[in-house]
Amino acid sequence: MSNPVVFLAVDTGRGGGIGGSVVIVEALWWCSMECDGVAVVVDRVIIEIKMLYAIALPMIITGLLIYGKSLISMLFLGYLGKDALAGGSLAIGIANITGYSVISGLAMGMEAISSQAFGAKQWPLMCQTLKRTVIILLFACIPVSISWLNIQPLLVIFNQDPQISAVASTYLTFCLPDLVFQALINPLKIYLRSQNVTLPLMCAAGFALVLHAPINYFLVEFLKLGVRGIAVAVTVTDFIFLVTLIVYLCFSSGTNVQKSWLCNWGIIQCFDHEWRSILNLSLPSCISVCLEWWWYELMILLSGILPNAAVSVATMGILIQATSLVYIFPSALSLAASTRVGNELGANQPSKAKTSSYVALFCAVLTSFIATCLMALFGGAWGRAFTEDEAIVALAAAVMPVVGLCELGNCPQTAGCGVLRGSARPSLGVHINLGSFYGVGLPLAVFMGFGLKMGLLGLWLGLFGAQIVCAVLMVWVLRRTDWVGQAKRARELIGMEINDEEPAQQK
């Protein structure tokens, strides 16, 4: 804070006397103090925004690059024909529901421990947390792999087309190695991000994407591997991404990364009593992620039983592609918020953690308004980018404004989820998501879509209701958070002694 301006009391000779001058001086002094206080707050907010987006911007670019990889795979599936596209799309949906959502959710359990350990400079704990998470994910791959290998008879039982089911089964079988690679990639991404190291993630994703299209072309066009080639290309691309990250970690000159990476890599230490703490965070995080991922798959199933199901399902797929693209931005902000809140709590700075959470929420609200406007503005053009079918284009253009409105709740609630993860409260996120999406959103979507015969528009209005309820609950939870108490919880989580003295910066 800058020094207050000093004013001299002078008798003006206008009847006020020296007493009146003193009153004026005091008022000016307090005004100066108020202005200085506001300036300090503004400075803190600006600094926090810079720190948040120093993490978020590379993660946004990384997300866009990964989205580009999925888009290239879909283009090559479409090149192979209708059956390949249908079977590949079915396989990708199954992989997301049964595999990647589980791996991603379980990995998020390490976010709180890693970010708080980094804030407290507990380098060995970061290394141990990474090892434990990798072991958990590798064990989780076993039941997922078994389900993928036996997926074809299950699909036939559920009345899926046998030929499409065969294509989906082939795709999943050749994607099995990718499941293991993702079990390594996800923890490494969180491990680096918790240390505010995001540029290598962006570079690794970019390098892998550059090679993805040529690999697809070689396997599909020259080796004539068809759907198998596209699945293998996904696996090879993620393997390149993984190797790039490991090379960076092994040869990094970053002091903090070296301190946490070059630790004792003994496996036996991973099986001590402390693994329970990460499981207590991983399981709720996994459930929270799965609840949200599964909702969109459920939306596709519901659209399949609407009148004119073919148009509804196709339009739903196009709209979900739009919301998936937009989701990259609040998701990156959520990851940044989780890192920042965890770092500050680990450093025993509850005031800064509170500031980080509020600034992240403010940025999320701004993002939501921008996303809403853009989606409403480009609704018609988005549908036409995927198809020339006028019925699908018209329905997409009609529903897209509501899809945009969903972002008014989605962006703040996504940022709020990041804050809860950073403060080691994923169970709270599970309860909020379960109540909002399945207690409010699902009944509302069914009622409006089928009861009121609003069709696809009604389903998205149900999602809009769920997102708003979820966002309101997140804001309420953050407003009631005892940040000093959360800082004490963080010290307990990372195994550090708690001083009786109050932290330097209070709530």
From TrEMBL:
Q: Which Pfam families match?
A: MatE (PF01554)
Which residue ranges run through the membrane? Answer: 52-78, 90-113, 134-158, 164-185, 197-219, 225-251, 278-296, 316-337, 358-379, 391-409, 430-451, 457-478
Query: A Gene Ontology molecular-function term?
Result: antiporter activity
**Protein keywords:** Membrane, Transmembrane, Transmembrane helix
Is DNA-binding a UniProt keyword of this protein?
no
An example GO biological process term is:
xenobiotic detoxification by transmembrane export across the plasma membrane
Keyword Membrane among record annotations: yes
Q: In which domain of life is the source organism classified?
A: Eukaryota
Instruction: Please give the family membership noted in the entry.
Output: Belongs to the multi antimicrobial extrusion (MATE) (TC 2.A.66.1) family.
Which species?
Buddleja alternifolia
* Protein name (record): Protein DETOXIFICATION
Q: Which GO terms describe its cellular component?
A: membrane
Q: Where in the cell is it found?
A: Membrane
Q: How is the protein disposed in the membrane? A: Multi-pass membrane protein
Q: Entry's CDD domains? A: MATE_eukaryotic
